[in-house]
Amino acid sequence: MKDSPVAHTNNSPAPLTFRKTAACPASSTLVSYRTEKLSREIAALVRKHLVGCEFCNAELRLLAHHKPRAGRIPQTPEIPMNLRILAESILGK
Ligand SMILES: [Zn+2]
């Protein structure tokens, strides 16, 4: 039987990785938090999380610079059919 002198090989200290964890709120939640659209309870939870999470703090700061335009999806305008036929007939000449 081998008696390993190192008892805690797997007990590495939790590295402070700069990334989202399972405990992190979603970006949309952070946006809602920023715009104060969350309920008091959820907002309190997010605030509590932000105290200990560098990543979410950074993300929140990032979101502050990046204002989302609510419900506005840029769309490429479609050329009306008659205009298109006209253009094609001119270009085809
Ligand atoms: Zn977080």
Would you give an account of this structure?
With 93 residues, this protein is an all-alpha fold. It has a domain at 18-69. The chain is built from four helices and no strands. α2 (40-52) crosses α3. The longest helix is centred in the middle third of the chain and has 13 residues, at 40-52. It is elongated. The termini are far apart. The mean pLDDT is 79. Bound molecules: zinc ion (ZN). Zinc ion (ZN) is lined by residues 24, 49, 53, 55-56.
**Uncertain spans, ≥5 residues at pLDDT below 50?**
none
What's the number of extended β-strand segments? 0
User: What value does the Rg take, in angstroms?
Assistant: 27 Å
Strand content: under 5%
SSE ordering: HHHH
Which cofactor or ligand species appear?
Answer: zinc ion
Tell me, rounded to a whole number, the average pLDDT: 79
Terminus-to-terminus distance: 92 Å
Q: Which range best describes the helical content: under 10%, 10-25%, 25-40%, 40-55%, 55-70% or over 70%?
A: 40-55%
Sheet with most strands: none
Q: Which structural class matches the secondary elements?
A: mainly alpha
Using the alpha-carbon principal axes, give the shape.
elongated
| Count of DSSP-assigned helices | 4
